Amino acid sequence: MVISSFIAEFIEEERKGVRSALEKITGVEIHKVIDNTKFILTLEKQTLDESYKTADRISKISGLTHLCLVYTNFEDEVAGHSQAET
Q: What are phi and psi of 15, to 5 degrees?
């Protein structure tokens, strides 16, 4: 499992639309709204590739101005790498 946290900044007037778009994406959970222009969210996916693709999809949501990765956590085997390969 790959778990990532983001700050998603958006245009204040677009808040409802951005929230709706985020809520339709499997694995996304919105935790908090800051200053009516930022969401703190997490993303859970099975692989790094899925996580990257979903983050790219999130970054293209209309009304979103910035997507900042705060952290990501994953196991090497889940990410498609074994200890022997590193």
A: -50, -50
Q: Which domains does the chain have, with CATH numbers?
A: 2-75 (3.30.70.920)
| Tokens describing residue 79 | 């990410």
Per-residue pLDDT of the chain (86 residues; tens, 9 = 90+): 999 999 999 999 999 999 999 999 999 999 999 999 999 999 999 999 999 999 999 999 999 999 999 999 987 655 555 444 44
Separate counts of helices (H) and strands (E) for the chain? 2, 4
SS3 71: strand
CA 82/CA 61 separation, integer angstroms? 34
Q: What are the strands of the beta sheet with 64-73, ordered from one edge?
A: 28-34, 38-45, 2-10, 64-73
* 42 strand-pairing partners: 5, 29
